[in-house]
Amino acid sequence: MTQSKHIWGEHLRTALSLASSGIPVLPLRKGKVPFGNCDACAGGACGGRPNMKSAGACTCPAPCHAWAAATTDPAVLTSSAWMAAWRRAVCVAYHPGAAGLTVVDLDDAAAVAWARTTLPPTRTVETTRGEHWIYRGAMPSHNAVRPGVDIKSTMSYARYLGTGTGTLTALPDTARALAVRKPSPARPAPHGLTAPAPTGQAECPHRTPAYLERGIAMAEQRITKVRSAVHATVYRTFLAVLSTHGRCGCLTDTHVGRLFAAAQAKGETLRHCTDAWTNARTRLGL
Fold this sequence. Notes:
Blueprint: H1 2-20, E1 25-28, H2 74-77, H3 80-86, E2 91-94, E3 101-106, H4 109-118, E4 123-126, E5 131-136, E6 142-146, E7 149-152, E8 158-159, E9 169-170, H5 173-178, H6 209-225, H7 230-245, H8 253-265, H9 270-284
Parallel strand pairs: 5-9
Antiparallel strand pairs: 1-2, 2-8, 3-5, 3-7, 4-5, 6-7
């Protein structure tokens, strides 16, 4: 009993220390997956998969949505919902991208040997089977970029395994190049928005264009300033914009494009933006 309390207490202290340094954190249970401890999200009702590694557009306070639940807020980390999770946690995880970091996860000795001849030296943390090479700078996350190598940054989480050794260096182009994928000829990569602005028929309540412009600007600012729970914030922001402006036909593709651009600047993909926009429209019946 005492040993168990000591372990989860250490996890919580580690999490609070990281959070105070601006690194969003969350607890992981056995299997290195987030807690699915929110009844309201059972069965993916909110659009996420609570017991898996993906993140959903959820507004609940429980730590059940992977990287999107990671936070630096000590009030959240020590809330009753999170304390219940810390008592069962097996380790601490963090969201590298939100902290401006990228983790090159080297899963075995062969991958480590490759990195030592290909990537510039940086801070290194030993793992069970390999090493984490941590760079300063964020990029999209990708799994299996080569044998035994994953990239964890935006929209991903990594286990915290200690401070490591070496000096943190800038993310090199060689690491970014690992994530580049040529589009399939049968399914070319999208170049623009795939989520149309709603064309509502309701009477417009906006007396001047400045009202809409102010609303879009505030929404952009809300997304831009967020430090944790990015995906959930994007969804809630889209929902707020659509609830105010979605039924009168005022929104144009230009407005939607501005919101998408703000979200993508925080690490969201076009697909996630489109899904969040579509889910918000569906929830409002648009």
